[in-house]
C-alpha cells in the first residue's frame, strides 16, 4: 500500500518536473522568437511628485503578448531569460526602446523628465554594458540624467566582483541607479552605502500592508528615514487607493507610483494621460 502510494507520488513529481522543464524549454524558444519578431512591448507607468502633483517620470515595464499563449507575466519570462542567457538582449532592447520612445515624445513636444528602465542584476556581469548604454544615449541624443536604471535589491546578494564595477561605471557616466523592491530581500545597510544608488523604491508590499499592519507602517516610516539620512529619495510603489496616498504623503514620501495614478500604459496613450492628469490633484 505504502509502496504504491510512494511510487505514485514519485510518478507525480516526475511528471510535474518534466512538465515544468518542458514548459520552460518551450517558453525559452518562444522568447527567442519574441525578441526576433518584436512581440515584446514596453508599457509606461507614471511616477508622481507627491508634493505638487507634477510628473516625476515614467517607469518602462516589458510586456510579452504571445500569439498562442497570450499574455506572459514579466516575472516569469524575466526569470526564464535570466536562466537561459537572453536577459542581456532584453536589457539592451528595453533601454534602446525606452530611449527611442523618450526622444520621440520630446520631439513631439511632450515633456517627460526621465525614464526608468528595469535591469536584471545578471546583466551587470557584462563589463561592456556601460559603454553600450552610453552609446544608446548618444544615438538618441539624450543625456545620462534622462535615464534611471532600476535594479532589484537582490543585486546585494551577488558577490560577483564585476557587479560593483559595472554599477560604478554606470554611475560615473551620470546615469542614476534606483534600488528596486527595497525591503523584500536581504538588504544590508552596509552594502547600501557602498552602492552608487540615487533612489530607493519601497516595495509595494509595505504600502499594501500599511493599512492593517502597524509594524509595516512603522517600517514604512523607518525606510523613509533611512533614505533621508542617506539623502536618497524614496519612491513608494503600489499606491492603489487615496488612503495609501494620504498615509504616504503624511509620512513625507516625495514620489509615488501605482494604479491610483495609472496602470502601465502603451506608449501611444502617454501624451494624453499627461495632458489630462498632471498636475495630479487628489
Ligand atoms: P517592478 O520593477 O517592481 O515593477 C512594479 C510592478 O508592480 C509592475 O509589475 C507593475 O505593473 C506593478 N504595479 C504598479 N502599480 C501597482 C499597483 O498599484 N498595485 C499593484 N498590485 N501592482 C502595481 P509587472 O509589470 O508585472 O512587472 C513585475 C516585475 O517584473 C517588475 O517589478 C520587474 O522586476 C520585472 N520587470 C518588468 N519589466 C522588466 C524588464 O524590462 N526588465 C527586467 N529586468 N525586469 C522587468
Ligand atoms: Mg521597477
Ligand atoms: Mg519595484
Ligand atoms: Mg517589484
Automatic annotation (TrEMBL):
Domain EAL residue range list: 24-278
Q: Which residues form a coiled coil?
A: none
Q: Report what the protein is called.
A: Bifunctional diguanylate cyclase/phosphodiesterase
Amino acid at each position: 500500500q505504502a509502496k504504491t502510494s510512494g511510487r505514485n507520488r514519485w510518478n507525480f513529481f516526475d511528471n510535474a518536473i518534466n512538465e515544468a522543464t518542458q514548459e520552460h524549454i518551450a517558453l525559452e524558444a518562444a522568447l527567442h522568437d519574441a525578441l526576433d519578431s518584436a512581440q515584446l512591448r514596453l508599457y509606461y507607468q507614471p511616477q508622481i511628485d507627491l508634493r505638487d502633483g507634477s510628473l516625476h517620470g515614467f517607469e518602462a515595464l516589458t510586456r510579452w503578448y504571445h500569439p498562442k499563449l497570450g499574455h506572459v507575466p514579466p516575472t516569469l519570462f524575466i526569470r526564464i531569460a535570466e536562466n537561459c542567457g537572453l536577459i542581456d538582449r532584453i536589457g539592451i532592447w528595453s533601454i534602446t526602446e525606452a530611449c527611442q520612445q523618450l526622444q520621440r515624445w520630446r520631439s513631439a513636444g511632450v515633456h517627460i523628465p526621465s525614464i526608468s528602465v528595469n535591469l536584471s542584476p545578471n546583466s551587470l556581469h557584462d563589463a561592456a554594458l556601460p559603454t553600450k548604454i552610453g552609446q544608446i544615449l548618444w544615438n538618441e541624443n539624450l543625456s545620462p540624467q534622462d535615464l534611471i536604471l532600476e535594479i532589484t535589491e537582490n543585486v546585494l546578494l551577488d558577490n560577483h566582483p564585476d557587479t560593483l564595477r559595472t554599477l560604478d561605471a554606470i554611475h560615473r557616466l551620470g546615469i542614476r541607479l534606483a534600488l528596486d523592491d527595497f525591503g523584500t530581500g536581504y538588504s544590508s545597510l552596509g552594502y547600501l552605502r557602498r552602492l552608487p544608488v540615487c533612489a530607493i523604491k519601497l516595495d509595494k508590499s509595505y504600502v499594501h500592508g500599511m493599512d492593517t499592519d502597524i509594524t509595516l507602517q512603522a517600517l514604512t516610516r523607518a525606510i523613509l528615514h533611512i533614505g533621508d539620512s542617506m539623502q536618497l529619495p524614496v519612491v513608494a510603489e503600489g499606491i492603489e487607493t487615496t488612503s495609501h496616498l494620504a498615509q504616504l504623503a503624511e509620512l513625507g514620501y516625495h514620489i509615488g507610483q501605482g494604479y491610483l495614478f495609472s496602470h502601465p500604459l502603451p506608449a501611444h496613450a502617454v501624451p494624453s494621460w499627461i495632458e489630462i492628469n498632471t498636475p495630479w490633484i487628489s
